[in-house]
Model the fold of this input.
Amino acid sequence: MDLTLVGQGLLSGFLFGGVYSLMAVGLTLIFGVMRVVNFAHGDMMVWGMYLAWLLSARAGIDPYVGFLACAAALFLFGLLIQRGLVERIVDAPHEMQILLMLGVALVLENVALVAFGPDPARVRSPLSQATVWIGPIFIDVARLVTFGLAMALTAALWLFLARTDLGRSMRAAADNPYGARVIGTDVRKVYAAAFGVGAACVGAAGALVSPILPFQPTSGLGLSVTSFNIVIIGGMGSLPGAFVGGILVSVAESMGAVFLSPSMKELVSFGLLIAILLFRPAGLFGKTAG
Amino acid sequence: MKLLLLLAVVVLAALPWFVGSYLITVMIFIFFYAYLGQAWNIVGGYAGQLSAGHAAFVGIGGYAAALLSAHAGLSPWLGMWIGGGLAALLGAVIGYLGFRFGLRGFYFVLLTVAFAEICRVIALNVDAVGGALGLYITFTGNPRQFQFQDNRAYYYVALALMLGATAAVRAIETHRFGAYLTAIRQDESACEALGIDTLRVKMQAMVLSSFLTGVGGTFYAFYLFSLQPNAVFGIPLSVEIIIRPIVGGAGTVMGPILGSFILSPLAEISRSYFAQGGWNGLHLIVYGVLLIAVVLFLPQGAYPALRRLLRGRPA
Done:
């Protein structure tokens, strides 16, 4: 095995992991706060990608700037979905919640299919062409920028949750919804904000990855499944778990592509998932499963 | 009620001699998806274990029967049982892993999805089973090879599958096993407290459900003459399987049939009319909206609501 190839795979997997982390942090935030699994997560991400594509194609805005607008749009969308639909089923059985979000996912995916057509799209950024060499290993500048911005956003989310009143209320509602209500937290507002912020994370992740990953309306399903893998591996509801899990799964997939074949890289992350489900269903950073 | 059902069966049996071939095709899809929905209903509806990977069993059954027919010359009429058996084996593995470790709700959903995706990736990458090109079945028109010149033969096979599975589910519902399943769905810990071996009951439901689904795989393969890994193992097929019983009424005998009579024509019409205008995803948008509406307004499905409506009036 060529060591350069392995090093190349490790590095590009690690850098790509930043996007996976941001995407999974969004999912785990929504789950942690209201115990609802967002089955439309990947499709929201695809909409982030298409919004970045629209901004770039129609208004000439670079996706590395446009991602802020995509995050804001998805924030609003998440807020509306929470207020209009999810709020009615927060206390329903898990099965019902899953089916509802599956319905939202189908609508999102196929509206994109009708609007943008089935062909793969890619957003052009001047950075997509540039590369940097470190010894025998090269790095796409786009990948580096994507990674840096994803890390910055995750850090910003961290600060928001740790330092602001709304962020603290979210963590309180996640820890103990009843207790949060007792001390006068407006749980309804917190839920809506959490869903919005979670959607904004995945929208930004979509926009940031759009210059390095070709996408099509049907990409959402695979991305949803990958985000579920990551949050289960990291521990449902655990933010550090989602962060570390994102990097881990990305590196594992990239190694799968090097050692098996690019089309079999999913096998590695599914293998990881099954191992975790069997031996530590609470995940690497989780406390309890269920 | 019994008379009405008998009448419906007689009408369905006579139908292909009075209608055109397009309607026969639509009916075949209604019956076949009702059959798959009925098979899912045992574990997903009655036992309340939401499997979102039932496509894996269709794929295993279809691939097994098709490969045995192509390489060993085994008639699919026999191969379908072997396909069903292999699907049941996979069902047992998934069920054991999931139930033994107490994976519920979302965790079980993901376990089933993961296994279906693993099957898909393997089928895509193993050239011996056709790889990414898929598997094609040469048409011989020989009834011994599960191939028929006349669409009406497929119609009767699909009708028999649906009626057989429905009779099986009806039998389950009226026996102790069905009562256990429903009890597990409603309150699993209470069942355990009463001394019911819930692991065993859930395993039986999973094995039976995956066996029937696997048998359906043979019909899929020899009706469509091709098996594509992305189509036959993919999540979209799993969604097709679960959406009918849920819309019709999961955990009821008539739910999957009613759901299929509602959704299959809808899918067929929007597919044939809108696909030409580039409106490919339209029937799936309809599915999505229906799923949302059912969860919000009819969480028990259409059949219980329909029954309430009928009971409200004097017969």
Q: What stands out?
A: The longest strand of chain A covers residues 131-134.
